[in-house]
TrEMBL record:
Subcellular location: Membrane
Boundaries of every Bacterial sugar transferase domain copy: 279-459
EC code: 2.7.8.31
Entry GO CC: membrane
Lineage, top ranks: Bacteria, Bacillati, Bacillota, Clostridia, Lachnospirales
Enzyme class per UniProt: transferase
Organism per entry: Porcincola intestinalis
Record-linked Gene3D superfamilies: NAD(P)-binding Rossmann-like Domain (3.40.50.720)
Stretches that traverse the bilayer: 12-32, 44-64, 85-103, 109-131, 281-305
Name of the protein in question: Undecaprenyl-phosphate glucose phosphotransferase
Keyword set includes Transferase: yes
Any one GO molecular function term: undecaprenyl-phosphate glucose phosphotransferase activity
Similarity comment text for this entry: Belongs to the bacterial sugar transferase family.
InterPro entries membership: Bact_transf, EPS_sugar_tfrase, NAD(P)-bd_dom_sf, Undecaprenyl-P_gluc_Ptfrase
SUPFAM superfamilies given in the database record: NAD(P)-binding Rossmann-fold domains
Amino acid sequence: MIKDNQKYFNRLQVVIDAAVTAVSYLFSWWVQFTFWTPKTQGRLSFPTYMLALVFVIPAYLLLYDGFRLYQPRRISGKRVEAGNIFLANMVGLLMFIFCLYVIRQQDFSRQMLFLFTGINFLSLVIERNVIRMMLHRIRRKGMNLKHMMMVGCSAAAEGYIDRIRQNPQWGYQVHGILDDNTKKGNMYDGVPVLGGTDELEHILSENNLDEIAITLSLSEYYKLKRIVASCEKSGVHTQFVPDYTDIIPSRPYTEDLLGLPVVNIRYVPLSDTFNAMVKRLFDIVVSIFAIIIFSPVMIGTALAVKLTSKGPVIFRQERVGLHNRPFQMYKFRSMEVQNPEEEKKGWTTQNDPRVTKVGRFIRRTSLDEFPQLFNVLRGDMSLVGPRPERPQYVEKFREEIPRYMVKHQVRPGMTGWAQVNGYRGNTSIRKRIDYDIYYIEHWTFGLDIKILFLTVFKGFVNKNAY
């Protein structure tokens, strides 16, 4: 039933997307030739533009499919979907312009194409979020549910059930758990243990289930082959939830080693050459632009530091960066000049006597961080990434905090996911690392843009920046 519903929904989604794309195209033509293009200017006829729509609709639908916009969306994120819509539209724009170049069509309005790309992106995002809200409401009312069973009563099973309970809009209904080591009738958050794993085939034949989640504990993986065979025999979709999430990351990925699947412990999107190149190019362009735009602010800050306290304007401090390599990080000096041993004593605390009056202001407003734009330009840092730490603290935390050193698999940043979520200054290092690892494993260009946007509103002025 769920599979049939999914096929019907996908077909309906294709029709809606086609309609939205067509309306966006027509609206773009109307805006372009009603408000922007003078009537006296030579232009192609309306039928010519509409003829192009015959090719645009199927091409864009294929792009939407290629960018995974017709995958099941019960638990997919809105941000990821919006990012895929953006990429599909940008590729469509480039293809459209390329085709016009190939057929040597000079009169087709390029301005209208850019307008269409923007309007179509916004329209599709709005349309899909409206549909998402409607589906969430339907599922909260007990309709369009996905019925499932769990095999194995483990920490993985408890975590799965907890997330389903917290998100009723996903539409999952767990009918029970099969486990050989838990007494029949026991409950976890309202989900009963129905019996042992030997009863799986009987339960599958007697119930119309959509999915089985295998959540065996580590000690019971020897049963896996038999359980998977029973599920495959019944034709029920099967998923595997490993009971060692403290080792496996949130986004593992597999490689094919001549037919042997290899599960990688850590997925780092920025280890991909293309992703790293895109991020580095963005860093260079934006850092140059920011240096030019904020040069009056930096000059003013430098003068304030120089005129109010003795010592150099720029403070250099060794930090640990990409692949554990040390580098010199730049900041406007906000403290009285200290000898190296005093400087290593500890972090800045609230009302720290070492901080100057100007220093207190530029630290609170993050103006002291602006020289790091030159670190970004040099390649020591990125605009967005985990904040770099001093070598002595790296050595301390690598022994105390699991996965701490994972942060050095990417360039450190001027701002980051932890900072915009409030973990800056005198806050939990463990929580900060959790956010850093989330960023490393879930990096997208869109996430970087989001963090930069949030930094403007949440990151510059911070109560924990002493």
